């Protein structure tokens, strides 16, 4: 006998209501997951490699302003450029003086973040082994003699720097001479308390660090004051399957705690949820060329205030914007 046949009318009504509510919740949860158009808009560069104002040369880290201007560590051009929304050319904001170590020069910058408290930019000046602050056309050296690659900043204004040579992340505040070790620092390795060439980093509101542990082909989450991290993406060796990564670089986390990774060696962007055994492809390389649905060695990642996804498409010498269509899907 059908189980519904022996239920009272009130019970059946309640049962159906619960099924409907469950279906709605599942639909809303799915709708909240960011979905992106697979054909990107080029918002900077895309005119071949070069140093003209409409060109980039191997862009690395990026950050997005509230007006959707993109600030780019234009690595091989040894400069930081600002590309306003809908502009055909960029504006050099740091280093019009060529590669060098002087106060007004850069060498192979790899990342840039904005320090709201001090109304300034923090730049990883990788080739000069230093981290600098840039404000009002002036530069201040914050950290010297460090193989810095990636940067992030917490809500208290503390700066976090990844150190490739020492396989560690340190936290710095104004006036520090050495910084405080917060992740790694136990020599090169693949243990949970070790890192191997950490590159880009991200910090959430709970002070948990997300680290692209590049040569271990994984992303680590290192909670505040923890002695070791946990693997939240990859960690199954170098490869192309959904449970693997290949030399990951950029890493960011959205409002739902989902982790986005520039899976550089696989020319795609992956998304992982903590605890999942495999990730999902959110932007595919589709052949590793230069069409609008292709990537070639993606590096830096960033969101704007609408959680549109921006990707530094390094070897295509451009910045790609993937529009968030989740709201369109839901409404």
TrEMBL record:
Keyword Transmembrane in record: no
Coiled coil spans: none
Placement of NHL repeats on the sequence: 294-325
Keyword Transferase: no
Name of the protein: NHL repeat containing protein
Database matches in InterPro entries: 6-blade_b-propeller_TolB-like, NHL_repeat, TRIM-NHL_E3_ligases
Molecular function GO labels: zinc ion binding
Provenance organism: Adineta steineri
Keywords on record: Repeat
């Amino acid at each position: 006998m059908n189980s519904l046949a022996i239920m009272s009318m009130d019970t059946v009504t309640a049962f159906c209501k619960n099924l409907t509510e469950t279906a709605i919740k599942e639909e809303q949860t799915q709708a909240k997951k960011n979905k992106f158009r697979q054909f990107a808009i080029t918002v900077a560069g895309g005119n071949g490699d070069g140093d003209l104002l409409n060109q980039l040369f191997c862009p690395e880290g990026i950050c997005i302003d509230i007006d959707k201007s993109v600030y780019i560590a234009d690595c091989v051009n040894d400069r930081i450029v600002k590309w306003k929304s809908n502009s055909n050319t960029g504006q050099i904001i740091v280093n019009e003086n060529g590669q060098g170590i002087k106060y007004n020069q850069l060498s192979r910058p790899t990342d840039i973040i904005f320090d709201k408290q001090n109304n300034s930019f923090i730049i990883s000046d990788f080739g000069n082994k230093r981290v600098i602050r840039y404000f009002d056309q002036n530069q201040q050296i914050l950290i010297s003699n460090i193989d810095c690659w990636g940067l992030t900043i917490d809500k208290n204004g503390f700066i976090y720097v990844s150190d490739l040579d020492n396989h560690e992340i340190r936290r710095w505040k104004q006036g520090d001479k050495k910084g405080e070790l917060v992740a790694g620092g136990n020599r090169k390795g693949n243990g949970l308390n070790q890192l191997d060439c950490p590159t880009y980093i991200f910090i959430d509101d709970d002070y948990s660090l997300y680290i692209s542990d590049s040569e271990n082909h994984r992303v680590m989450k290192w909670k505040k004051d923890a002695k070791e991290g946990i693997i939240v993406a990859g960690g199954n060796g170098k490869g192309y399957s959904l449970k693997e990564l290949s030399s990951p670089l950029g890493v960011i986390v959205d409002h739902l705690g989902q982790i986005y990774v520039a899976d550089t060696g696989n020319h795609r962007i992956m998304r992982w949820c903590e605890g999942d055994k495999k990730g999902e492809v959110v932007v595919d390389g589709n052949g590793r060329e230069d069409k609008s649905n292709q990537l070639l060695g993606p590096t830096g990642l960033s969101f704007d205030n609408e959680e549109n996804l921006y990707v530094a498409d390094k070897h295509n010498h451009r910045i790609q914007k993937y529009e968030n269509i989740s709201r369109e899907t839901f409404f």
